[in-house]
Amino acid sequence: MNKLVGYCFLALVIVSCQDDDIDGYNLDTQFVFEVYNAEGVNLLDPANATSFQASQIDIYYEVDGEKQRVFNGNYTHPENFSIREDEITDKHTMVLGPNDGTDEGTTVTYVQWNENDADTITCDIARGKRFAVTTQITYNGQEVWSVDGEDYSERRYFTIIK
User: Fold this and answer.
1) Which pLDDT does position 155 carry in this prediction?
2) Quick check: 96 pLDDT over 70?
3) Global confidence as pTM
4) Which one, of 15, 115, 107, lies nearest residue 67 by Cα?
């Protein structure tokens, strides 16, 4: 009887571990960046009088050729970004979740810093049945991070000079 129970348990474990039965999705698209002016002032540090204020920043995703403002009321950060002191560099940074809601390989995200200043970020996103991972980031047409880049690191982190 114990052998029968053991075989039934083993069969149950084997059947329950099939790939088709695994629930879950690996969404790994966000990135972190610093923003400085030409004088070296961190424009994300709220202690600086010239810094961008989070309350004035809007994020837009390009969806079907149109800009749509991002707001997800049930998220901790409803506009898919946060400005915070980075835990590794101790510098004020922006953590941004780019447009990842399309089936296209390249997505477009707009950062509207204030009424007069906006930037465009494009991301190449590799997709599979259970994953979406950013593989390349361009900022206003300049590549700033890539899995194939010379300065590749697993952490998607870069610096912008405005």
Assistant:
1) 81
2) yes
3) 0.79
4) 107
Query: Which of these, 85, 86, 98, lies nearest to 31 by C-alpha position?
Result: 98
Over the stretch 35-74, which tens digit does the pLDDT of each residue have?
A: 999 999 999 999 999 999 999 999 999 999 999 999 988 8
**CB-CB contact of 37 with 141 (8 Å):** no
How many residues are there in the chain?
162
Q: DSSP letters along the chain, please? A: -HHHHHHHHHHHHHHHT-GGG----EEE--EEEEEE-TT--BTT-TTSTTSPPGGG-EEEEEETTEEEE---TTSSSTTSEEEEE-TTT-SEEEEE-----SSSSEEEEEEEEETTEEEEEEEEEEEETTEEEEEEEEETTEEEEETTSTT--SS-EEEEE-
* 33 burial level (CB within 10 Å; 0-12, 13-18, 19+): buried
| Identity at 46, one-letter amino acid code | P
Task: Give me the DSSP letters along 77-90.
Answer: STTSEEEEE-TTT-
What distance, in Å, lies between the first and last C-alpha atoms of the chain? 74
